[in-house]
Q: What sequence folds into this?
């Protein structure tokens, strides 16, 4: 949980907010099929539905009150993976900062699968 203080009071932003904003920003980028989740039971990578995409996001709270974000995605076949990942990193950093005011230190993108 990240807390912001002002003269009017305190605002607390939960991990779920960051996860949902991150998931929406990432899946809106070109070439991204969706968020990914590796099942513990069968070990396979699954495409997450929109309502469960926060499972593909991990938010880490840093000591300097910034956050770091890890996200797991599935991309479409034939896309330039480095270009897609750069686009996601920029978009997530911008959208999270714009919507929450939190400083994003790092965005790490893991491409777990490619859909043919």
A:
């Amino acid at each position: 949980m990240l807390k912001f203080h002002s003269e009017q009071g305190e605002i607390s932003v939960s991990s779920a907010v960051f996860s949902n904003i991150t998931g929406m920003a990432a899946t809106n980028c070109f070439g991204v099929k969706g968020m990914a989740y590796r099942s513990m039971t069968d070990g396979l990578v699954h495409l997450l539905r929109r309502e469960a995409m926060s499972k593909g996001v991990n938010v880490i709270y840093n000591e300097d009150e910034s956050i770091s974000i890890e996200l797991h995605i599935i991309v479409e076949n034939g896309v330039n993976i480095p270009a897609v990942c750069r686009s996601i990193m920029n978009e997530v950093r911008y959208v999270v900062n714009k919507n929450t005011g939190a400083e994003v230190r790092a965005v790490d993108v893991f491409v777990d699968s490619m859909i043919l």
About this structure: The longest strand covers residues 104-115. The mean pLDDT is 91.
